[in-house]
Amino acid sequence: MTYTDLVHELTDGLLTDLEKVRAIFRWITVKDLNVMDFEESTNADTPLGLLRGIKYGTETYHVLFMRLCSYAGLHCVEIKGHSKSVGYEPGMKIQPEMFQNTWNAVLIDGDWRLVQCNWGARHLVLNKDRKRGGSDKNKENGMTEHGTDKKEVKSDKSKDKIRYQYDEHYFLTDPDQFIQEFWPKESEWQLLDAPITLEEFEALPFVRSVFFHFGMRFDKTMPAVIETNDRGGADIRIKIPEMFENDLVFYYQLRFADTERKLEATYRGAALERFVFQTTLDNTAMFSIHVPTTGEYYFEIFANKINESNKISGTLDDTISPFRLKCACKFKIRCKALKGKMHPLPDCAAGEWGPKKAVRHFGLQPIYLDHSDTSSDTGSTSSNDSPENPKAGILNVEDSVTLKFRMPVPLQFVVKLKLNNVEQKPLDAFVYHAVESNVLTVTATMPQLGQYGLDIYAKPKTSDAKTLSHACKYLLNAVKVSNPVELPKINRSFARKGTIGPSQAFDQMELLLKSHLDPQITMEEKDSETQIEIEAPEDVEVSHHLLREPDEDCKEFVTMVRNGTNVKFFMKLGKHGNYLFCIYARRTKGNDSSMTNVYNYVIAHKKRNPLFSSQSNGSEPPQVVFEEKKSHGLLRKSIFGSKKKDKEKEKKK
């Protein structure tokens, strides 16, 4: 088929320029080139020949669109410039040779309108294994990026793939929205009354089409780079149209921005996501971030609209179907100084806090009792007070709390109470639930002061599903406990029991040591660098932490590099002393987001006063004998401690 034949077929009977442009754009962008087969003999100077060139990276969409417009008698031009495309991160400075892109402008009824066929037709799905160890969350979120011009779109098929999916946003996009992602070299093609500079373009927040598609907007002017306050806090609030209030789902990802830590999903064994409080209140999605340490981070927000298959209706086989979330916006978070210590939120199910999730997916309607209902207190980082708002999922509790929900259909529930550093099973005795008529009542009694998480899981009573889905969660601040109860603490590190080397989880996760088979490492005074190497299956995510006696965080002395199953830890110790190097790991295909301590090394970086008294014969875990000095150090007591007989020797001296 020739260009003339195709254009005649597409525009026959169409009277306006708008209709013709629309027909051409749709014909180009609805085609899935992944499933289209082209004969090698296809004439390159035909529409199919040009499509074949686009598939194999020798032609571009903007050329095809401009050529079809020309045959249809439409005035169309190509525009060159820069885009915030694949590889771009908030805060980046765009150099002349970077992130180049080309798009079109077409004249319709005397007005120039912007068109991006490439982004309207397809996007690049990034290989999940390059996203912090390939966690299941990333697969669910569907992390995608748009390409630049033809050479950038081509990718290693074993790692990335191109997904063809129509996106209406890039057809006749409003100039004030288009400028969020594209900056033309010729300022007149911004089609704005007040064109912006490249520096101003870089400073705009990083947003994607889903942000505009669902009518989102920020509650205030947002920069691409957000500076935290002195407590590591930053707030992001997104306004949602009322029509989408119960159908839009949000999620987020916090990750380190620096190259050395970009694959790390945890800080001191806690998932970075646990340093973010997300909730939805009064048509506003709120994200309150408290970063755990100084440095730079990327914070990405995902969103999408759910349908009836993602809700519970109460049928026999009713379950919540998986759904894909798309990137809505992304920021760089910069923390230059931090006062105090940031603790992670309780280790509850991932995602938003508050009852909105239960309303959205299960139709559970919260029945508010005697709690305050101030919409200003929602976990904001700007207040030192303990916030409280039941609609946001935050409650200040004196001794106990009761929550009630009205059920649309009979449901089965499981309720869990979570407290950092406390074993789960003893907490089960402090929370119970009851269902009477169509009302669920959950009562939790606080055994100690502290911050608790309350998880509620549910499924229809008539459902044959073997598992329950997460319905919602609450953050409970126990501000008064009349009768405190002692609870067993979690031995998160097996080293706390006086051992070093591997834990049981080391073999369970099929990890292997490639260097330093002895967990005791002695480094001479003149030596400051060493390298530890392990093998880890691709579905195992690995993290680490380094501490120096007594309680000094030295994680900056370690750089982790992962290449497939090979993991290397490069250490450059900046000070002499006694160190504990902990390796953490977790399976990415499970629901548990917490990291398990799998191996511990003790490193003595001193020429004299060796850390180890003798080598173990292998029958028992090696015991540590520390230097003779008074210390309340982490290595001396908190983690390893000294054996009773060693203490007796000290007394004799």
Query: How much of the residues is beta strand, in percent?
Result: 25-35%
* Overall average residue pLDDT: 82
- Helix share, percent: 10-25%
Shape: globular
Mind describing the biggest β-sheet?
Answer: 6 strands, mixed
Second rung of CATH, namely the architecture of the largest domain: Sandwich
Helices, by number, come to 15
Alpha-beta classification: alpha+beta
Classified in CATH, the superfamily of the largest domain is: Immunoglobulins
How are the SSEs ordered, and which strands pair?
Blueprint: H1 3-11, H2 17-29, H3 47-55, H4 61-71, E1 76-83, E2 100-108, E3 111-115, H5 117-121, E4 122-125, H6 136-141, E5 144-145, H7 150-153, E6 161-164, E7 171-173, H8 175-178, E8 182-184, H9 198-203, E9 206-207, H10 209-213, E10 217-218, E11 225-227, E12 233-239, E13 248-256, E14 266-267, E15 270-271, E16 276-281, E17 284-290, E18 295-305, E19 326-335, H11 356-362, E20 365-367, E21 394-398, E22 400-406, E23 411-419, H12 424-427, E24 431-436, E25 439-445, E26 450-460, E27 469-480, E28 501-502, H13 504-508, E29 512-513, E30 520-523, E31 529-535, E32 540-548, E33 552-553, E34 558-563, E35 566-572, E36 577-587, E37 596-605, H14 634-638, H15 644-652
Parallel strand pairs: 11-19, 21-27, 30-37
Antiparallel strand pairs: 1-2, 1-8, 2-3, 3-7, 4-5, 4-6, 9-19, 10-12, 12-17, 13-18, 14-15, 16-17, 18-19, 20-22, 22-25, 23-26, 24-25, 26-27, 28-37, 29-31, 31-35, 32-33, 32-36, 34-35, 36-37
Helix pairs in contact: 1-4, 2-4
